[in-house]
Amino acid sequence: MKTTIAEVGKYVGQDVTIGVWLANKRSSGKIAFLQLRDGTGFIQGVVVKNEVAEEVFENAKSITQETSLYVTGEVREDKRSPFGYELGIKKIEIIHDAIEYPITPKEHGVEFLMDHRHLWLRSKKQHAVMKIRNEVIRATYEFFNNNGFTKVDPPILTGSAPEGTTELFATKYFDEDAYLSQSGQLYMEAAAMALGKVFSFGPTFRAEKSKTRRHLIEFWMIEPEMAFYEFEDNLRVQEEYVSYIVQSVLNNCKLELGVLERDVAKLEKITAPFPRISYDDAIQFLKDKGFTDIEWGDDFGAPHETAIAESYEKPVFITHYPTTLKPFYMQPHPTREDVVLCADLIAPEGYGEIIGGSERIHDHNLLKQRLEEHGLLDGAYKWYLELRQYGSVPHSGFGLGLERTVAWISGVEHVRETIPFPRLLNRLYP
């Protein structure tokens, strides 16, 4: 019976054949222990010298790391294994001998591992992070599909900057300028006016020269947009969505969280509703904590966000930022001209902002004024302004950064480990 490692539990006591790679091995004189992987998981294969043909045992002792094989053997329960099963190997068929594999069980430097990212992905911890990433994506589709959202794909090539910034990758689009998208939000607003509740999931690009553990040049965003949803409605969707994906990982990635030695007790506390603190109160909180470098009107840096987050066991919303700090499209506070109806969701444990969201301006004249103030009242935003002329309604949305969210849930230090092939300030290889 040909199967996969993930499915061996169905065949306890039976012989199965699995296509695998050798991740690692150790042997005594009479027994060889093979750590095997097939992409679906990891399992230990045991080869006992006096139970197999001499050729099988010699192969088990001599095969090199990452050699590809077909192994045939009996599936056995093994309570000592986190996986719960092992394979009593009876037959080994070598598919391809691996040459000297560069990534060994010893410690390697980060740059070495990044240069070999195409191989580093095969390691147990990187495999676990990718599985958790996949679960977050799966749960994302499930959450939004179950809640009446339609997936819409915004363009990657755009003629303008969604947030009016200059941190864009420019390219030529035949005889005019174009940019790699830094957000699909403006297009999602148009889609929400057609479909009510929509979400996108796709790559975004920021030409930001940052080297922090929280930043990537190319990353993936989940961006919902909702017609007839105001500020409070928006926060409710965010906390329900984040709670949903965390609980899905807890339920479906127990083995992977164990491999990463993640403290799941912290994740088990992530249930809606989430606490909130206003920007005004956050400034005062930081001053009381001894941060003398922050004044009202300043944006928060990583140390500020971490200090605020440490006061809570759940993600915390920081609400109502100054108008001057936020993009042109955010709805003003109804009783204050100096702040807008927005919130950033800050993850616990120093992982920083994972969501930015707001109610959007729906009044034509106000949006026109904001575009003019930002020097953006040109042809590139004509279509966006037109949305406010044909049945405009209150609407809200947010963007969740996938890699930061996976880093937090997984407990890994740097976002470079949460995307298969990271693009960093000085890295375009492999």
From TrEMBL:
Pfam families reported for this sequence: tRNA-synt_2, tRNA_anti-codon
Catalytic activity from the UniProt record: tRNA(Asn) + L-asparagine + ATP = L-asparaginyl-tRNA(Asn) + AMP + diphosphate + H(+)
Organism: Bacillus salitolerans
Designated name of the protein: Asparagine--tRNA ligase
Gene Ontology MF terms in the entry: asparagine-tRNA ligase activity
Presence of the UniProt keyword ATP-binding in the record: yes
Superkingdom of the source species: Bacteria
Alphabetically ordered keywords of this record: Aminoacyl-tRNA synthetase, ATP-binding, Cytoplasm, Ligase, Nucleotide-binding, Protein biosynthesis
Assembly and interaction partners: Homodimer.
InterPro entries: Aa-tRNA-synt_II (IPR004364), aa-tRNA-synth_II (IPR006195), aa-tRNA-synth_II/BPL/LPL (IPR045864), Asn-tRNA-ligase (IPR004522), Asp/Asn-tRNA-synth_IIb (IPR002312), NA-bd_OB-fold (IPR012340), NA-bd_OB_tRNA (IPR004365)
Family membership: Belongs to the class-II aminoacyl-tRNA synthetase family.
Localization per record: Cytoplasm
EC assignment: 6.1.1.22
Domain Aminoacyl-transfer RNA synthetases class-II family profile: residue ranges: 130-430
